[in-house]
């Protein structure tokens, strides 16, 4: 009965509820955050605490509402905070007139954080150093100091800002917060699944095939056995052979159609290998990824995708392919995908132009961000180059933007005015072309790049596939083994074969 009445009332109030929302209720205003009021309250308390001079006093009144519909004020829980330039007697009189309690000291009940209150005055510095408080500030300040030192300095940023790292524009969103929370949940021991996940994502196969391997190993592929586990009523038998229960091992390994497809694709040696006879599909995939080359893993992934595609086509459209057709299509699709990737090559710039390829690399465990860039003329000959590493860890897009900015500064240093810059970061190139603005470190660097290009009208930025950016990538990887800053005019040995190949 309660649910029915609530539903009726909600539907009746729907037409007029928006007229009852005032502009102060930020939770209902588009583009505003529910935390805005708390942040404003914190700033107000800070201003009142700092106000020690002047004849005019100011106060902040915290009103506690007894009822949710805002028709009754609880004076017992309501409080007032008055600026410090008012006498104590005046504060007491105002508190008595208003009928609410006077808040003394820090104003912590107004939502001011402990660290903020503790560091409010210079008189607290001694207490912070001597550790006469209950907070573990040594660990806290150490983490903050390390983060500050790892923050890249951007010329256009003159003062510190509050930035939400999970969004490229630097502004908070519930969507990114939810994704961050899910990453923490999935990364916890309760949900973590041990295995060679890197082997899956490094497989030489289209993303859709690698994604199928991931779903298979996570147990979220909707086979009939999995559907029944989730209380979906359906027939358990395999739709291809109608003989056994359809689980991951059966549909991809034991089914007669699947086994013949493996042979037709030229992967029978992988299917019958004694080392790959684990009892579940996840363990088999992980072992194959650990023992086989990325090409073989890619062919296996493409075959499994074709088997699953054929199964769905049979189930929903009643279209059936023979095992020979499945295996042949899997091999041809994988071969076409790898051939297309190999066809992507670096192109020489036009006459009178210089091309500069840039890339960034992150060496695991080093705590460094290393960059590499190379200038080449219209014949493909190396004119100059530079490598640099910095003891800081950036995000990939921040590193790409920082590298491009360094390349433009290097071009100016060498007196080059007609330069095409190529990066394999599509996000960066689109941000520059669309002149995106925001509060994040990434977009701050992008703003510097756009400002730089406004002074050099013949600077162009283009996106290039990773296969055509191998010279810059190799330099970025090698930079970690050299000095922190290295310029060169002669071709380093690590890229000599790549440059010669791309000159042809």
TrEMBL record:
Domain of life: Eukaryota
CDD domains membership: RNase_H_like (cd06222)
Domain RNase H type-1 residues, every copy: 357-478
SUPFAM superfamilies assigned to the protein according to its UniProt record, in alphabetical order: Ribonuclease H-like
Domain Reverse transcriptase zinc-binding: 182-262
One GO molecular-function entry: nucleic acid binding
PANTHER family: BNAC02G40300D PROTEIN, POLYNUCLEOTIDYL TRANSFERASE, RIBONUCLEASE H-LIKE SUPERFAMILY PROTEIN
Name listed for the protein in its UniProt record: RNase H type-1 domain-containing protein
């Amino acid at each position: 009965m309660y649910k029915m009445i609530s539903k009726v009332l909600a539907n009746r109030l729907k037409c007029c509820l928006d007229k009852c929302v005032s502009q102060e209720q930020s939770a209902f205003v588009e583009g505003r955050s529910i935390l805005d009021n708390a942040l404003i309250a914190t700033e107000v308390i800070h201003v009142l605490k700092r106000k020690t001079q002047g004849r005019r006093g100011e106060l902040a009144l915290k009103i506690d509402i007894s009822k949710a519909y805002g028709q009754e004020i609880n004076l017992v829980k309501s409080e007032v905070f008055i600026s410090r330039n008012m006498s104590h007697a005046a504060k007491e009189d105002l508190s008595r007139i208003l009928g609410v309690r006077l808040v003394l000291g820090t104003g912590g009940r107004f939502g001011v954080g402990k660290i903020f209150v503790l560091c409010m005055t210079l008189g607290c510095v001694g207490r912070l150093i001597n550790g006469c408080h209950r907070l573990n500030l040594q660990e806290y300040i150490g983490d903050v100091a390390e983060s500050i030192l790892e923050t890249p300095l951007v010329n256009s940023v003159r003062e510190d800002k509050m930035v939400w790292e999970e969004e490229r524009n630097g502004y908070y969103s519930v969507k990114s917060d939810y994704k961050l929370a899910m990453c923490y949940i999935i990364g916890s021991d309760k949900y973590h699944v041990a295995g060679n996940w890197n082997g899956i994502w490094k497989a030489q196969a289209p993303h859709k095939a690698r994604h199928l391997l991931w779903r298979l190993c996570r147990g979220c592929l909707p086979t009939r056995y999995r559907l029944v586990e989730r209380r979906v009523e359906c027939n358990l038998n395999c739709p291809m052979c109608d003989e056994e229960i359809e689980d991951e091992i059966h549909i991809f390994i034991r089914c007669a159609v699947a086994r013949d497809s493996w042979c037709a694709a030229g992967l029978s040696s992988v299917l019958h290998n004694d080392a790959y006879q684990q009892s579940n599909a996840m363990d088999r995939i992980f072992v194959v990824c650990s023992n086989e080359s990325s090409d073989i893993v890619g062919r296996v992934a493409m075959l499994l995708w074709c088997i699953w595609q054929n199964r769905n086509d049979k189930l929903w459209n009643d279209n059936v392919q023979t095992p020979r057709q499945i295996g042949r299509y899997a091999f041809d699709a994988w071969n076409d995908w790898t051939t297309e990737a190999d066809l992507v090559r670096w192109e020489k710039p036009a006459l009178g132009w210089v091309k500069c390829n840039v890339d960034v690399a992150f060496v695991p465990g080093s705590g460094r961000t290393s960059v590499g860039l190379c200038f080449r003329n219209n014949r493909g000959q190396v004119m100059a180059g530079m490598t640099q590493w910095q003891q800081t860890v950036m995000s990939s897009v921040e590193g790409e933007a920082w590298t491009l900015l360094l390349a433009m500064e290097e071009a100016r240093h060498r007196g080059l005015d007609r330069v095409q810059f190529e990066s394999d970061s599509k996000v960066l190139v689109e941000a520059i072309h669309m002149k995106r603005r925001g509060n994040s470190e990434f977009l701050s660097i992008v703003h510097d790049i756009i400002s730089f290009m406004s002074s050099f009208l013949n600077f162009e930025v283009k996106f290039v596939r990773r296969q055509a950016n191998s010279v810059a990538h190799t330099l970025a990887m090698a930079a970690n083994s050299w000095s922190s800053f290295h310029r060169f005019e002669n071709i380093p040995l690590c890229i000599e074969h790549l440059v010669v190949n791309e000159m042809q």
